[in-house]
Amino acid sequence: MSTSIISTALSLPTKTHLQSQQPQQFTTLKPSIPLSTFTPKPLSLSSRKFSPLSAMAIEKETPETEAPPTFLRDGSTSSDTVRGRFEKMIRETQDRVCEAIEAADGGAKFKEDVWSRPGGGGGISRVLQDGAVFEKAGVNVSVVYGVMPPDAYRAAKGGGGDHKPGPIPFFAAGVSSVLHPKNPFAPTLHFNYRYFETEAPEDAPGAPRQWWFGGGTDYTPAYIFEEDVKHFHQVQKDACDKFDPSFYPRFKKWCDDYFYIKHRDERRGLGGIFFDDLNDYDQEMLLSFATECASSVIPAYLPIIEKRKDTPFTEKHKEWQQLRRGRYVEFNLVYDRGTTFGLKTGGRIESILVSLPLTARWEYDQKPEEGSEEWKLLDACINPKEWL
Q1: What span, in angstroms and rounded, lies between the C-alpha atoms of 217 and 275?
Q2: Contact indicator for 193, 290 with CB cutoff of 8 Å
Q3: Is 385 buried (19+), middle (13-18) or exposed (0-12) by CB count in 10 A?
Q4: How many beta carbons lie within 10 A of that of residue 114, not counting itself?
Q5: pLDDT at residue 51 in the model
Q6: How far apart are CA 90 and CA 139, in angstroms?
Q7: In angstroms, how far is CA 348 from the centroid of its own chain?
Q8: Catalytic residue check, 190
């Protein structure tokens, strides 16, 4: 199975949403292309008939037998370059998280697939399935670059207009993960950290030269243990506070607002941090910030897994977990921009849907009893709380 990065688990808002949610005290230059739209989905250009939208596929991936030391071309691998250091960071993050998940699971191992793109770059997909602790865990990295078709660029911008750019050189790299435990008292976790560049000569049509960072880590339990939620959010705040005390409240609200299931009028989970199009700070500072956030995943999550993975549960608890997993599916398939773009452009289904749980449940007109533990979770998803 070859999946790529910023792929399935990635959730990015539209430009209108980003502008409406950005705090006024910051002036952010909005990039021309949202990262998640392109990075993770190796897209197919086959001979079958496509609809006009699906004809925007970029490239088909090629399976490889092993991962290369770097996916970057010669000259881009220096530790002095942001590209080189970001690739090193995301691959080390993938290794550390996979090792920690395997240790917590106690026996199951990740299946690894490596793929490359003829136009440049590639990725490493790792999936653990049907383990003792984890129902499904995916941790993927991707480093891709080349030229983006004009139609794909216009689709990424979320509209057409009179401006018709030419082919756009781009670079995109990231690590993306979704971890679904079996025990209803153990929470699901999603994290994603990414870096994107576009480049075009000044005298040529296309996207302007820009760079930006995006990402976040969010927490989706079926049951609330307040000490667990506070621990998770405290680790996010500690990472943010090392760089700017405004980051945690700003990115916590952004996370609450983004992971919103409009047709349910509730959030997917209990939040965390989320940011995108971030380029209004020093590039070195933001690289260090993304690195710190990625390094915080294990201390934020694994202590909770160790505490809850063996908690006794009933069939009722499992059914409620499956209902909340259904909400996870709804958000990813209806609102996740990267997922919906991949489905419309002929992307590889295994890559696009790697974030989804193995099992989920829907019941007609299901409502938890007021005051129950299930009701408390739903209330917190409808009315986001300040946990710290």
Answers
A1: 10
A2: yes
A3: middle
A4: 19
A5: 40
A6: 10
A7: 17
A8: yes
As a whole number of angstroms, the distance between CA 369 and CA 375 comes to: 6
- Percent of all residues in the chain with a pLDDT value above 70, rounded to a whole number: 73
Decide: 197 and 88 in contact? Cβ < 8 Å.
no
DSSP symbol at 347: B
Show the tokens assigned to 190: 């999603």
What pTM did the predictor assign?
A: 0.82
Distance CA 177, CA 95 (A): 12
Q: What does the pLDDT read at residue 150?
A: 59
Q: Which long-range contacts (CB under 8 A, 24 or more apart) does 65-68 make?
A: 65/114, 66/114, 67/112, 67/114, 67/124, 68/122
- How many alpha carbons lie under 13 Å from residue 300 in its C-beta half-sphere? 29
Catalytic annotation, pick one of 17, 163, 180, 190: 190
> How many CA atoms lie less than 13 Å away from 354 in the CB half-sphere?
35
Contact 40, 159 (CB under 8 A): no
**b or e along 297-331 (b: 16 or more beta carbons within 10 Å of the residue's beta carbon)?**
bbebbbebbeebbeeebeeebbbbbbbbbbbbbbb
Q: Which pair of structure tokens corresponds to residue 11?
A: 């959730």
Q: Where are the beta strands (DSSP E) in 185-311?
A: 188-198, 210-220, 260-261, 266-267, 272-278
* Dihedral angle, C-alpha 21, 351, 360, 102, nearest 10 °: -100
Domains (range + CATH), the chain? 15-382 (3.40.1500.10)
Q: Write the CB contacts of 250 (distance below 8 Å, at least 6 apart in sequence).
A: 23, 26, 275
